[in-house]
Write a structure and sequence with these properties.
635 residues; alpha/beta; Rossmann fold; GMP Synthetase, Chain A, domain 3; eight-stranded mixed sheet; 21 helices; 30 strands; binds 5'-O-[(S)-butoxy(hydroxy)phosphoryl]adenosine
Amino acid sequence: MSQYHIKSLEEYFQVYHKSVREPEIFWEEIAEENFVWKKRWDSIFDWDMKSHKVKWFDGAQLNITENCIDRHLETRGNKTAIIFEPNDPSEKAQHISYRELHRRVCQFANVLKDKGIQKGDRVCIYLPMIPQLATSILACARIGAIHNVVFAGFSANALATRINDSECKMLITSDGSFRGEKVIDLKGIVDEALLSCPTVESVLVAQRTYAKVKMQKGRDFLLQPLLNSAYKDCDPEVMGAEDPLFILYTSGSTGLPKGMLHTAGGYMVYTAYTFKNVFQYQENDIFWCTADIGWITGHSYILYGPLANGATTVMFEGVPSYPDWGRFWHVLEKHKVTQFYTAPTVIRALAKENLSFVEEYDLTSLKVLGTVGEPINEEAWHWYNDNIGQGNAPIVDTWWQTETGGIMISPIPFSTPAIPTFATLPLPGIQPCLMNEQGLEIKGNPANGKLCIKFPWPSMARSIWGNHERFIETYFAPFENKYFTGDGALRDHTGYYRITGRVDDIIIISGHNLGTAPIEDTINEHPAVAESAIVGYPHEIKGNALYAYVILKESGETRNHDNLRNEINQLINEHIGPIAKLEKIQFTNGLPKTRSGKIMRRILRKIACDEVSDLGDTSTLLNPEIVEEIIQQKL
Ligand code: WT7
């Protein structure tokens, strides 16, 4: 039996118990047997419970790109590492071999060095799903620069916030991007953002649309000519296992987005390990994760996890609806995809379309199907199982977070029996628990509570960039010596976990995390708005949609409400991006508040969800009469 590759339920239990009983020995063996290290660790694991500083493989030296690229050259040099499938189906797909990837990454790394980027410098990457996104990330990792990828759907404002918080020295972008029929002027967004980003010294511009863009002399450089003249080899920088690999921002319930910091060694070990097991990857499989690399799912399971296993991974530039709703299945058939990983919101959107879009294509190459990002409802699960897997490809419902770096709770396909809506069992090394309202662990089954993790795992975020206090406050202060996930969960009589959703002020829209506070702040910036509160309510496709309650200033009351709604959404679009669009905006005279002035979102949520018969205790409200008024005026 190999504990790196679990092949039965019995093996899973054996490996799991070992990982809990002897976590250090377990991870030491995994690390030793499956990766190349330049120097061995001094200690496997260290956890300072006061400062919540966690270290894995401390003292070891490695470079993750050596593990993801160089070590495969001898045996898999001509094997395809990345299949790039363009937005436009008539454009040819690119098959980038490991050898070719090595050359491209080395050349890119040399360009970064030429532009003065050194180990520890932060580089912001704002690119669409084109090969340069993969190579720029790996080039940063090659030289020890810390990449900060910002999803290319974010607005100029959101981009600037993320660049400034981590003081990026360089920005890598493209002239524009293609998404379905749309052409987006990325460089224009970048130029606007950079007006308020003093730390950025240079901008590298990849060409994708070949639109004419403004180039600022001395700051902006076209990427391709620099690559063409760069040397084709670049020694990987020696990195400490605990050196930062990347920062990736995720929404907080209040304040600035949180720059989650991930380090090289533990992240590599855990993403590779989970990729192998959760997708049961085998040598000639073709893996396709439809996420954008701008999110953690893409970091871990389009790039690092698959490449560390020498896999072939698909990078898709387009959208599921272009040129029609059969595109995913067309791509799947074309590249004979064996593992397909997507989000429930996408499944729901696809399921709404005519089944003939699926039936046209041969999907028999599929072995495993995955979902991630939000709870999957039963209907979507069955549609996915019956029509895409056709009963032959088990579904893995994978629960994890930007903070966790890799998949935490998930079935192991062909071993763990799946039940719709259950993420099932923790992966080796992961020790979940449920906490009650009194802050105590609920032992025994069944149970329902707040989901925590009792013991650190290799790929957990080490900190929030520049704000370790906030890291402790958010994740370790709620429950002593436990990592708090922010999710609620129930555990059934067999020990299976089902994630029930966020228990904090974060709302998940189409699988994207959105904090309520920054959205409310944006609404309040509108000159006619006095105050606002947003909540999530169920939406057929997006899972949740945003419902806003807005109090207008006197000056706003005489204005046309639909115009105001458009203006508010325009502001949201500019400050955060289209994903935070307010589905419904109800103007109201007041908001239910506690005596200490806190908005009772619980009540607003119930109203938005049409659950008014069960509003719970409203006696602590300062203004209980407003509740009835809001219900009467509900949209
Ligand atoms: C939140 C993390 C990690 C990849 C994408 C999201 C929710 C994630 C599931 C699932 C139910 C899920 C949780 C979590 N979530 N996967 N399988 N079932 N909920 O990363 O943006 O950091 O969001 O997504 O609420 O806390 P993220």
